[in-house]
Amino acid sequence: MLVMIICLVFSVAVHKSFASCQGQDVAIVVSNHFGPYITAANAIERRITGRCIDIKISKFFLDQEKDISRRLGKVSPDVIFPVGTQAAMEVHGMFPGIPLIFSMVLDPPSELVKRSNEYGVVLDISYKDVLRFLLMLVPRVSRIGVLYTEDSLGMLDRIDKELENTGLQVVKMPVLSPENIQERLEEVFRLTDALLAIPDMNIYNSIVAPRIIFEAIHQEKPFVGLSKNFTMSGALFSLDCDYNDIGTQAADLWLEILAGKTPVKKIQYPRKFTAYLNLHTASLIGLVPDKKVLDAFKVVAY
Q: Which ranges of 92-208 does DSSP label H, i.e. alpha helix?
C-alpha cells in the first residue's frame, strides 16, 4: 500500500511538471553555425524535450534567414531562446508579451537586461570566481591591472561592483591606439601584481594577445586569459564556460518561470566552468603550485 501511495505521489508530481509546458511552441534562434552556439542550442532542445510533452520546437539560424521577424510571426512562439549576441539583439523587443531567454551573450548590452520579459545566461564568468582562482596561485595579489579601450568601458563598472570589498585595487589603464600598447604593458606590469584580460577585441585579438603573453612572462607577472585558447597560448590560467550547460541553464530558467517561480536572478552567470592552468607558464614566472591547488585546475601546457 505504501509503495502504491509513493508511486501515485511521484506520478502526480511528474504530471504537473509536464503539464506546465505541455503544448508550448518554442523558437530557438541561433546567431550562426559557430560550434559553441550549436552546442548550447542543442542543449536547450534536449532539456525541453526531456521535460515537456506535446511540444513544438522550431530552430532558426540567422545566417540562413532573410526575415526572422516574419518567420517567428508564423510560428507564434510561447518563448524565444536566442543563442549568441546577434540573435539576442535581432529578436529583442519583437514579442514583448512572451519570455525571451538569451544565452551565449558576452557582456550583454543594457537594453537586453531592462525588459521585464527578458532573461538570460551570459557567456562570461563572475570576476569573483576569477579572483578566487588567482588567489589560489598568487595569494599575495593586491593590485590587478586592466587594459581597456572605449569599447570595453562598460566592463569597468562591472569589475568595480564585483570586486568591491575584496581589498584589491583595480588599476585601469586606457589603450588609446595599437602603438600605445607596449607603453601601457610596461606600465601596468610595473604598477600591478597581475593583468586581467577583459572582452575587448581591440586589445585581445590574434595580433596583440601574443605580445601581451610574451611581456607577462618576460616580466614574470600572472596574466589571466579569456579562455582555454589563451591558456594554451601562454596565459597563466583562464576560466572557460561549459557551453552545453549554458544551454541547459537557459532552458531551466524558462521551466522555472512556467512553474510560477521567480528566478533569483534574471541574468545569470554560467553554473559550470573549467579552470585551465598552463603549468609551463607558472614555472617561467616563478610559481610552484602545490598538489591541492593543482587539483582545482585542468593543466595544459604550450
A: 111-114, 127-137, 153-163, 181-191
